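Morning F.,

Quick status update on the modeling queue. The single chain you submitted on Monday has been processed. Sequence for confirmation:
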Amino acid sequence: RHRRHRRHDAIEDTVDATEEDAVDTADTVEEDAADTVDAIEDTADTVDAIEDMVDTVDAIEDTVDTVDAIEDTVDTVDATEEDAVDTADTVEDAVGTVEDIDTIDS
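Structure tokens below.
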């Protein structure tokens, strides 16, 4: 009977140890799962930050396009101004020619 009691105690000790191991394993799995979720959330935050950077680059490219368009407009204005000056010079030359003809006719 004493031997049976010791065997029973040994079985209880084994069951207790197994339960403790199971609880420890469950806790570890839960902690690991939580860490994995945190890592996934961090990755999602990183992806969001990268998407924001891409949006910023797109906005910068749009600004560069706008600056290019403004430079093209400035070039057009300069060309138009040069054409106007050339036209004014041509008109002055024509007026001078008419005056010279009037002087000769007089």
